[in-house]
Amino acid sequence: MITLKRTTSDNADFQKLIAIFDEYLIDIDGKERDFFSFYNNKYLEHVVVCYENDAPVGCGGFKEYDFDTAEIKRMFVHPEHRKKGIASLILNELESWATELQYSSYILETSPKLENAIALYKKSGYKIIPNFGQYIGVENSVCMKKII
Asked: Could you give the CA distance from residue 23 to residue 105 in angstroms, rounded to a whole number?
């Protein structure tokens, strides 16, 4: 049985998943690891943790980017639980929550090496945009946006 829980980044299950995610990203981010780590390890008031049979298997969060835009952060599904639609469930829940809070667009940043993530975002209606904020000029970043 799959369930979703709205919480914050203080949630212990979220922190466990993010520790696994950060290890996974070491190879992907390479020499830019410290740069990405600085922006990714911030408190998030809006986090979703996905459970399969009461075990945490995936997560994601968002924060305000500007008054009508939420930035999707820390999307991750444990490798043993991929290809089950979990990432889509998490993303849909994050978007629903952000919409409830009156955000009308969503942005995100990911690595060009995470081809499956990019495919998920495109399938979900995101379009590639010029890099925003701290990602301007960062070659190892792909930025995307969805307007509702």
From this structure: 30
pLDDT at 120: 98
Q: How many CA atoms lie within 13 A of 2 on its CB side?
A: 16
Residue range 43-97, pLDDT digits in tens: 899 999 999 999 999 999 999 999 999 999 999 999 999 999 999 999 999 999 9
Lowest mean pLDDT, pick from 6-20, 32-46, 104-118: 32-46
- C-alpha distances in angstroms, 6 versus 15, 52, 70, 122, 129? 14, 15, 16, 24, 28
For residue 102, which phi and psi values (nearest 5 degrees)?
80, 15
